[in-house]
Predict the 3D structure of the following.
Amino acid sequence: MFGHTILSKGPDPECSISVAADGSDSVQDVKRKIEEAFGGTISRDQLLLYFGPNERCIGKQYLGDPTVDESAQTLSQFSILGWLQRFPHWRLGVRLMPAAPPAPGVATFRAAAMSEGKDPDQAVQEARAKGEIPALMALPAPWGPKPYVASAADAAHAPAKYPEGFSPLDDTVKPVLAV
């Protein structure tokens, strides 16, 4: 909710924050304002932002997510303020960020071991010893110490880019010329 800082008690605490009307606030700025509104009882690094009826995640998706620079993402990139003008009952939600997903290959070996009635942790250790799963020391963040290298797969986290002059909030119907 946007406006003045207000706190409420109960199972679903609510707070209001003020943001720039031009959408220039970064995701990091919004998280800082939420952290301050709740009196610093929770770290902004633990906050997962989501928006709209489908609860689209904004910013980092999990703890230690190296794929997103929240200081570079602004609210205007996600058209949040425009959507709020159109649907004022929508809210920017916040919840605790989940842990990082399992390291590459771990989920597969754990699932296979469980389906065979074996100890999943032992199956993962054996797979690492055989070299079937990379050692954690050989993995990039968030699983290991290696630096993260951006790839084309990270494009799913980028905000939508619309053509010049196009707005998803524009309801006008453009005439189609018959040939």
